[in-house]
Design brief:
- InterPro entries: CheC-like_sf (IPR028976), DUF3334 (IPR024513).
- The protein has about 230 residues and is α+β, with helices and mostly antiparallel strands.
- It contains six helices and 13 strands.
- Strands 2, 3, 5, 6, 7, 8, 10 and 11 form an eight-stranded antiparallel beta sheet that branches. A three-stranded antiparallel beta sheet has the order 4-9-13. It has a two-stranded antiparallel sheet with strand order 1-12.
- A hairpin with a 5-residue loop joins strand 10 and strand 11.
């Protein structure tokens, strides 16, 4: 039997599918990703709304999603309308706390979906930190203060139904998973239970380790204070 090899870029593709699936299903509008990925040297938080989370376990990495103001508002409003919120009650500025809260929750759902896939398809276990969603007006370099094994970094563009663009940036170990024998994938888990399990609210020590592991550039004092680091 020929061994099946899953690479870091295959894992990135699964993350892209989680982003598209969760945002499309929660907003009832198509969210698609580009067929091409870009190799980058560093991961950055960029205006107007940036979100990041780190994960570790079977492999370690950092996920960053940078939304333009228009993309964030489109996704937020579509999500809230699906939840039954009248348009008159919606926020119209990406700087609203409500927009940041909702986008952070959607990021949490994306990572929860991704973790389910990793646990099932790769027979490994990873944990995530609580996503941090920030309104920013300048680019900030962000990295993990740990030794990634031959780190690879990638950027992928996404497009909303109204053709607004946002970007996923992803850094992780350069790794391979090699399937030696056939196996049955585990049964589906309750998504809400999984999200609760991987929420940092259930692990104070994990949240503390995240604050210690995230490093931003020297010109980010306000960001550091906002994160409580």
């Amino acid at each position: 039997m020929t061994s099946q090899v899953i690479t870091s870029d295959d894992i990135l593709l699964k993350l892209c599918h989680s982003v598209s699936h969760v945002l499309s299903s929660t907003t009832s509008s198509p969210i698609s990703h580009a067929a091409m990925i870009q190799s980058i040297n560093k991961t950055c938080l960029k205006p107007d709304l940036g979100c990041f989370s780190i994960f570790d376990g079977g492999f370690s990495g950092l996920v960053v999603i940078n939304f333009s103001a228009k993309a964030a508002i489109e996704i937020y409003q579509a999500y809230m309308k699906q939840m039954g919120m009248p348009e008159s009650d919606l926020a119209f500025s990406h700087t609203s706390d409500e927009v940041a809260d909702i986008m952070g929750e959607l990021m949490n759902q994306i990572l929860g979906d991704f973790i389910v896939k990793m646990n099932k398809e790769l027979q490994t276990s990873i944990n995530q930190s609580q996503p941090k969603m920030l309104t920013i007006n300048k680019e900030l370099t962000i990295s993990i203060d740990t030794n990634l094994d031959e780190a690879v970094a990638r950027r992928v563009a996404f497009k909303t139904a109204e053709h607004h663009i946002f970007y996923l940036e992803f850094a992780m170990d350069k790794t391979e998973f090699i399937k030696l024998t056939e196996f049955e994938q585990d049964e589906e888990h309750d998504p809400d239970a999984l999200l609760a399990q991987h929420s940092p609210g259930g692990s104070a020590s994990w949240a503390k380790s995240v604050n210690q592991a995230v490093v931003v550039d020297d010109d980010a004092d306000d960001l550091m204070k906002e994160l409580g680091i």
